[in-house]
Amino acid sequence: MLANPVPSHSQTDVLICLDNQQVASRIGAVLSQQGLTISAIPAAGLQQWLEPNGCQLVVTHTAMIGEVRDRLNLPVVNIETFIFDRPDHVTEGAARQFDGDAFVKRVFSVMNGTQRRAAAG
């Protein structure tokens, strides 16, 4: 029997499927602050993932979207659409910036749309 590194029977609102666990932790912290329950797995762990009760969406990156959609019947939010180049990075700061506010709004928008579609169907 294969060991599942993440709980499969617990309530999880959002599954984060990213290989960079530092980024996954940051994204998880942002969503947890909004009251959501999070599970995070590396892309390689997707094959062992069992959809938890209540999971409403998956956060991943462009290269993983197809595999996530093939494996799970959940909507996807692409984290890369919220990362922008900063033209002022030459003088200060990082070259790229994450728009956390827009990301959180998109997550809740997708989750609310999922709930409406489930109730209508």
Secondary-structure map:
Layout: E1 14-17, H1 21-32, E2 38-41, E3 57-60, H2 65-71, E4 76-78, E5 83-85, E6 96-98, H3 100-120
Briefly say what this structure is:
By secondary structure, the protein is an alpha/beta fold. The chain has a single domain, classed as Rossmann fold.
Largest sheet: 4 strands, parallel
The residue-averaged pLDDT reads 81
Order of helices and strands: EHEEHEEEH
Kindly, what is the distance between the CA atoms of the first and last residues, rounded to a whole number of angstroms?
36 Å
- The Rg value, from CA coordinates, equals 15 Å
Strand content bin:
15-25%
CATH class categorisation: Alpha Beta
CATH topology: Rossmann fold
By CATH, the architecture is named 3-Layer(aba) Sandwich
Structural class: alpha/beta
Output the number of helix runs. Answer: 3
What is the total domain count? Answer: 1
- Shape from CA axes? globular
Q: Strands across the major sheet, in which order?
A: 2-1-3-4
Extended strand count: 6
Residues in helix, %: 25-40%
